[in-house]
Amino acid sequence: QVQLVESGGGLVQPGGSLRLSCAASGTIFSIYVMGWYRQPPGKQRELVATITSGGSTNYADSVTGRFTISRNTAKRLVYLQMNSLKPEDTAVYYCYVDMVGNRYWGQGIQVTVSS
User: Measured at the alpha carbon of residue 87, what is the angle toward residues 86 and 93, in degrees to the nearest 5?
Assistant: First the structure.
């Protein structure tokens, strides 16, 4: 089993920054994809960013140039650095991992961008 726990969310003003962290525990295989989804109020969940076990990254168009996904493999952490935040970035952010045909989710963390 895999457990994912997000941290680092909160309230921030437009133009500000936050860094989300996702701590993984349990069995993590050598080949995986990890990343972040978000679900804005009243909308469907959408993919934000991914990082593969090989280090390749991918971003949604709406966050390219503002968000950066990274990882600390030794500490089993994945980060999402969010800069130049906009009100439309307000959402519950979920960490996930795909490996050996299974997807595991974190519980989600609220990010609110408002003045």
Answer: 90
Q: Is the distance from CB of 34 to CB of 20 less than 8 angstroms? A: no
Sign, CA dihedral 58-90-77-46, equals negative
SS3 assignment, position 32 = coil
Give tens-digit pLDDT for 86-106: 999 999 999 999 988 899 999
Give per-residue pLDDT as tens, 61-73. 999 999 999 998 8
Beta-bridge partner residues of 37: 47, 94
Q: What is the DSSP string of 39-96?
A: E-TTS--EEEEEEETT--EEE-TTTTTTEEEEEETTTTEEEEEE-S--GGG-EEEEEE
Q: Please say whether the beta carbons of 91 and 104 come within 8 A.
A: no
